[in-house]
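Lecture notes, continued. The same structure-token format from the folding unit now serves as the input rather than the output. Read the line below as a description of shape only.
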């Protein structure tokens, strides 16, 4: 009967416990203040604060003939990855975050606090940051590769791998979470690329759609060529800073934690000042426990 009550997340915890602990021990052993900042830097590439602007960038790029492939591939990959991770897998697996389930593992807990004790408000499997980084990286990688720009293409998977490692270093995900996120992200990136190919094939059948280009509008002609590339680079850098700067001050004792204190003291980030998750009896809860308590 006890086995029947286990979630898939509980089963993954038990099956991969030794593997996850061994990887955590390695990252705990190399932890220092410099690497912590580096980890926070790379983790920002998978944050919602970076991914949402990338969707906006992708939609804008679709309007320009020269960047249309990148735009479609990026938007489709993010859409597929979001559905797979947040709509299907996380609510099915229901894996609790390691900083909630491993609070009695001394080396882990000290490493979690040492890395800044960052937290999220939802389930752990798969890693959404890793999925986000890989879905974008693989989609862009495949477009660059198809255009013969292979040296540039490899930059993006390397960034995604660094994002993947940062989630373990910061102790907010099990190693098996990020491995699953990598797989989902690769699948989403490939799916986004081939969905782009399909849409581009359909567009190619219409001369009007094929030649549609916002760069042909008189006041937009300035953004072609080098100017356009610089504009994209500035936007990406701005999106990164928008994501990275808040991470530097997140976590720690000032963080607002979920009020749940049942089976464990929940260290998830509480939803504060969010009209979708109002306080319950004056207490703020994470997404998971807010939904459990309200039955929504």
């Amino acid at each position: 009967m006890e086995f029947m009550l286990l979630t898939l997340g509980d089963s993954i915890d038990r099956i991969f416990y030794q593997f996850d602990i061994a990887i955590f021990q390695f990252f705990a052993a190399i932890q220092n203040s410099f690497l912590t900042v580096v980890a926070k830097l790379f983790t920002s590439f998978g944050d919602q604060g970076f991914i949402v602007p990338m969707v906006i960038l992708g939609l804008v790029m679709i309007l320009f003939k020269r960047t249309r492939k990148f735009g479609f591939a990026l938007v489709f990959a993010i859409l597929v990855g979001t559905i797979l991770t947040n709509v299907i897998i996380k609510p099915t697996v229901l894996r609790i975050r390691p900083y909630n389930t491993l609070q009695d593992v001394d080396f882990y807990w000290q490493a979690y606090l040492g890395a800044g004790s960052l937290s999220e408000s939802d389930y752990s499997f798969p890693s959404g940051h890793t999925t986000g980084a890989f879905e974008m990286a693989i989609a862009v990688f495949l477009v660059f590769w198809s255009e013969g720009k292979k040296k540039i293409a490899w930059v993006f998977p390397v960034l995604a791998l660094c994002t993947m490692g940062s989630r373990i270093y910061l102790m907010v995900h099990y190693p098996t979470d990020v491995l699953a996120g990598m797989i989902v992200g690769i699948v989403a990136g490939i799916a986004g690329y081939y969905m782009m190919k399909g849409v581009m094939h359909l567009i190619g059948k219409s001369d009007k759609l094929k030649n549609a280009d916002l760069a042909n509008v008189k006041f937009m002609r300035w953004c072609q060529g080098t100017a356009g590339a610089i504009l994209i680079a500035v936007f990406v850098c701005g999106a990164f800073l928008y994501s990275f700067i808040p991470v530097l001050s997140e976590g720690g004792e000032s963080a607002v934690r979920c009020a749940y204190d049942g089976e464990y003291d929940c260290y998830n980030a509480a939803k504060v000042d969010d009209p979708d998750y109002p306080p319950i009896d004056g207490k703020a809860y994470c997404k998971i426990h807010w939904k459990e308590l309200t039955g929504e």
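Point for the exam: Residues 76 and 95 are 27 Å apart (CA to CA).
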